[in-house]
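Design a sequence for this backbone.
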């Protein structure tokens, strides 16, 4: 299992707003106002003071003592930052090869629900901890490790006690609370002085929004856990066998795609003599149709810039009405499953296996799943998302982070050690070309060693980059020699082998080819989406405003109900009434508050 696969999880693994990560790697929809009552006593006056400060922010009544850095006796917190050692050539100023004496840090982490330890190993004694101690002079002690959904709850308790680890992954909500309480180490100088080229490249590839979100009042207060929301924006996947049977060409425009959808519905592409196939895939949350909406320059549930440079809510714009009108037309023509309103994405995927659907907007990795899982003997071809007019379609995505920000407790002696951990992660997980290193620190014998890395940041275009690295080898009529293969990562070498076998007739490897061969989705992301800047990010990248906390859930419900009714046949004027109601019932307040933040960012 790759990091990206684990990131997306079993429930929303293949969906995006990206997710979608859905809002992909951005978890911003999931923020909730914390109003639980936490009772207990702090262990000393200082902790009580900090705890009560946080209690005010969290809306709690008292502080609960919890485990933290001093319990482990391993923390280096509480002193001014210093740096030891000499800089490595090409690395940032002052970042040492190895800290001497060793830096000792505490953290709390989540696991990915996969096997992660060899016999005799545990969270604080495994290949990663041993490597970091022996090679980098960093001793990381994990005071808590468990399911991701429990990490936020556990760290909330730590925050309320005033006893937080030296560093950990904070949700956006926690990030804001910790910063307001003055518990975070400012990282502006630390990042400028010690961030390596590897780290800076990842942040650049992620887009400006993650670093902007981590910056408060001009000060960098956290390191974004970058995600894959941008590379996961959808391409259009179409069943090749149906296209061939009906003599259909690749879609170059939205009208071409609509013609394919009509043909898949009316011309019996599966040859069973029944009208039981549909064109476009649509789920009840409208999540897997975001790319289709984007083709009409409509964007669902994000904040975009209007012509005056102000934030505007995307779902109430006129383009959405046009897109919904087309979906209504397709539904009436039988091109959309009549039961879409009760089917989540997982149920829609089952329709692939039943040979009922022929067009799917999905990520560049969709060939791995759900497509090859549901239709192992059917090849789907990827195409760039088309536009309804001469303006290229821009694909929406949420904030390009995975869950939050790496934060450092105020007073930690060596905050730059967290950047060292991030750089080592990039070197061992992404940049390594040696098989033995891969086996030790990435994956071997079913053990996902990579999950034990204490700091992770995902390369935003890792999957798309594979096709770039394989392109010259796959173009050559000669088999790649040892020298060329040695420059690839172990994963890339494996993918190259799979694709060459596929080209020889091994149909079982079409999923690898669907990502990285010349006809695959990777080149679409690299050569079209990236080169033409086909991305539409959500511009609202801070914590929910008061009106959002109070009213957004009801407005979201009204939005989904309205969109569903329109597709099912309600008058198009229903959209106009929805816009008026949305504004009246809190949307105008949300818009004002969003722009108040946007003007001061």
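Sequence:
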């Amino acid at each position: 299992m790759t990091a990206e696969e684990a990131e997306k999880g079993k429930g929303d693994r293949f969906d995006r707003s990206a997710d979608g990560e859905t809002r992909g790697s951005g978890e911003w929809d999931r923020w909730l106002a914390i109003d639980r009552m936490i009772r207990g006593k702090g262990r000393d006056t200082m902790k009580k003071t900090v705890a009560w400060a946080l209690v005010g922010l969290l809306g709690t009544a008292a502080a609960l003592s919890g485990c933290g850095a001093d319990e482990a006796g391993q923390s280096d917190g509480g002193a001014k930052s210093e740096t030891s050692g000499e800089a490595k050539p090409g690395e940032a100023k002052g970042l040492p090869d190895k800290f001497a004496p060793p830096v000792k840090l505490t953290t709390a982490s989540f696991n990915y629900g996969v096997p992660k330890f060899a016999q005799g190993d545990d969270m604080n004694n495994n290949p990663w901890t041993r490597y970091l101690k022996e090679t980098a002079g960093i001793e990381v002690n994990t005071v808590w490790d468990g399911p991701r959904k429990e990490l936020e709850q556990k760290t909330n308790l730590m925050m309320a006690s005033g006893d937080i680890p030296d560093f950990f992954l904070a949700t956006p909500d926690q990030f804001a609370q910790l910063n307001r309480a003055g518990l975070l180490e400012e990282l502006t100088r630390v990042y400028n002085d010690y961030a390596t080229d590897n780290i800076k490249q990842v942040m650049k590839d992620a887009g400006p929004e993650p670093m902007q979100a981590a910056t408060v009042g001009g000060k960098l207060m956290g390191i974004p856990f970058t995600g894959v929301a941008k590379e996961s924006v959808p391409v259009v996947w179409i069943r090749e066998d149906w296209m061939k049977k009906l003599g259909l060409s690749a879609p170059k425009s939205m009208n071409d795609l609509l013609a394919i959808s009509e043909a898949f519905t009316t011309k019996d592409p599966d040859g069973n003599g029944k009208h039981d196939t549909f064109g476009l895939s649509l789920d009840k949350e409208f999540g897997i149709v975001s790319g289709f909406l984007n083709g009409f320059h409509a964007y669902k549930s994000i904040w975009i810039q209007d012509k005056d440079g102000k934030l505007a809510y995307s779902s109430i714009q006129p383009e959405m009405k046009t897109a919904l009108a087309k979906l209504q037309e397709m539904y009436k023509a039988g091109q959309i499953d009549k039961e879409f309103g009760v089917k989540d994405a997982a149920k829609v995927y089952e329709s692939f296996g039943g040979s009922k659907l022929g067009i799917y907007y999905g990520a560049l990795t969709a060939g791995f799943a759900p497509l090859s899982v549901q239709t192992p003997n059917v090849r789907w071809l990827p195409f760039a998302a088309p536009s309804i007019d001469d303006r290229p379609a821009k694909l929406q995505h949420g904030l390009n982070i995975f869950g939050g920000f790496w934060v450092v407790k105020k007073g930690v002696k060596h905050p730059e050690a967290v950047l060292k951990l991030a750089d080592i992660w990039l070197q061992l997980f992404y940049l390594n070309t040696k098989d033995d290193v891969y086996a030790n620190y990435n994956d071997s014998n079913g053990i996902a060693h990579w999950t034990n890395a204490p700091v992770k940041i995902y390369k935003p275009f890792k999957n798309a980059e594979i096709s770039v690295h394989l392109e010259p080898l796959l173009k050559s009529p000669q088999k790649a020699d040892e020298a060329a293969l040695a420059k690839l990562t172990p994963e890339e070498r494996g993918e190259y082998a799979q694709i060459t076998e596929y080209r020889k007739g091994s149909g079982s490897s079409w999923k690898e080819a669907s990502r990285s061969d010349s006809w695959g989705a990777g080149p679409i992301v690299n050569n079209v989406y990236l080169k033409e800047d086909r991305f539409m990010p959500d511009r609202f990248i801070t914590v929910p405003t008061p009106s959002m906390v109070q009213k957004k859930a009801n407005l979201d419900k009204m939005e989904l109900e309205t969109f569903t009714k329109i597709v099912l046949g309600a008058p198009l004027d229903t959209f106009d009434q929805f816009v008026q109601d949305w504004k009246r019932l809190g949307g105008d307040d949300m818009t004002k508050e969003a722009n108040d933040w946007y003007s001061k960012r």
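The chain has two domains: 1-17+230-397+461-601, 45-227+406-426.
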